[in-house]
Amino acid sequence: MPRSLSITISERGIGNGYVFPAGPLRAPLAPQLALTDALVVIGDGAASRGIAAEIAAKGGPVFSAHLEPDAASLAELRGKRVLAFAGIGDPARFFRTLNASGVDVARARTFADHHRFSQRELNALLADARADGLTLATTEKDFARLGGVTEARDIVAFKVTLRFADDQNLRKFLARRLFKAREKKFRSVNDV
Asked: pTM of the predicted model, to two decimals?
């Protein structure tokens, strides 16, 4: 049975505990925990402590990580007032990341997860931003969904990198898992 590396957000944990679209989970929690060999906790909040304790109790490593803003993205937004918009699973986290990075978020607009932005919506965002002298900013994921929409050049795609507190042990864990998977594959080929 395949095993997994699960990810949770420290501020939200498992949210309301429901599966998408009613909640943030992509699958029911109990079966996923049974298959989880390791956990990645993103952020410094306490909401994931219970899940982390369950994984650690069964001998699985718990890796801590945080989102590190891209220096060029920060440079584009520093000193400017921003109208931030996002159509991701947790837009509030994006807005908190901007604020924590020193970006002045004057206004924020939330769209549904995986939202496809229309030219009309983008025109409205651009008009709102221009009327108040704001710079538009969104996530890289949302920026990619702007596709053929014009004026995308007037929007800052706020880039982040996931940084691990202990990337050396994460690499060792992943290398061991890959080695075991490769070894199992070769054993099954030789058994034929």
From this structure: 0.76
